[in-house]
Give the backbone structure.
Amino acid sequence: MRRAAIIGLHCCYWGMYGLLILLFMILGARTVHFQVRAVLLPGLMFAAPALPAFYVFYFLLFPRFLKRRRLLVLGAAAVSVSALCGLFAIGVQWLVLGAQFRNGLSWDTAALLLVLAFIAFVNGVLALVIRGFITWYTEIRVKEELRRRNTEMELELLRSQLNPHFLFNTLNNIDVLIEKDPVRASSYLQQLSGLLRFMLYEVRAERIPIAEELSTIEKYIQLQKIRTANPKSIQYTVEGAPDAWMIEPMLFLPFIENAFKHGEKKAENAISIRFRLDAQQIRFDCENRYQRKAANVANPHGGLGDSLLRKRLALLYPNRHVLEVEAGADTYKTTLILNAHAN
């Protein structure tokens, strides 16, 4: 929700609450001979405990307790804050009304404290409701934005991954292998089929086991190896067990595709891909060598795809990811770290 809308919501709440206070002040002034106490006491009784209670509940109790579903601690904190706000209101009335407050008090101090604490508690609960509504509405907007960006991302990835150049080269290489090595050609054809199936269908799922992503990456690398005569030009390693992770599809493959698109695949260790996984973190390193051309000055991997990848990560893993890019004289390295919990 936009800041202006949130401010407007607060203004509407306090405007309605102010009208209620004004009504009680007018009734007090009309039913009792005009006295400072008759006019100010209703206003102080409603305003003094309400303001601090509302914003303590709003800014402190909601994010610390209610959002984390710590309901028992929330209840104890709510009672404590309400009592303190009641004491604060008594102090304000004593300072403003002085002797009139002490002499004209019709209830004992305990009864007055109970009433003021109740007013504080009611305003605090309403603050939780308002903050909860704002959070709920914001999350809906974020999810809608995420779906829209994911759709854009899927289309862009399909354009970049399923390009005719990659498909034609792979199919031509398989066609050559059919006569020389039919078994190997059949294996490559199955890998290509699995890769296309993943890109066309699996990307529509919200989350998949990371093992499926790694399997797709391995198929892609095997298909790329058809085009190079040096088996040591591509290094691919996975460390750790991927069983505990569920991720959004196509998180890592675009970086790898960029490495093959711009990398020099003939030299030894030209492309290095490494995954390190544990229960708390995934670390992905992808490094490739490239030949810097005159028309390709700063970043050989930049463009719309890079921008969409960053936006997607920001939406999917806010405060839970680190993306670092290092462009050297002849090397380009991408490091992506995904954390299980927010930093």
